[in-house]
Amino acid sequence: MKKLLLVVALFVATISNAQKNSVLLGGNVGFQSEKIGDAKATDFDFSPKVGYQFTDNWTIGVEGSIANVKVDGFGKTEKYKIGGFTRYSLPLSETFAFYTDLGAGYQSSSVNDAKGMYVSLTPALFINVKRGFGLNFSIGGVNYDNLDGKNDPRQERFGFNFGKTLNIGISKNFQL
Question: Is-above-0.85 flag for pTM?
Answer without folding.
Answer: no
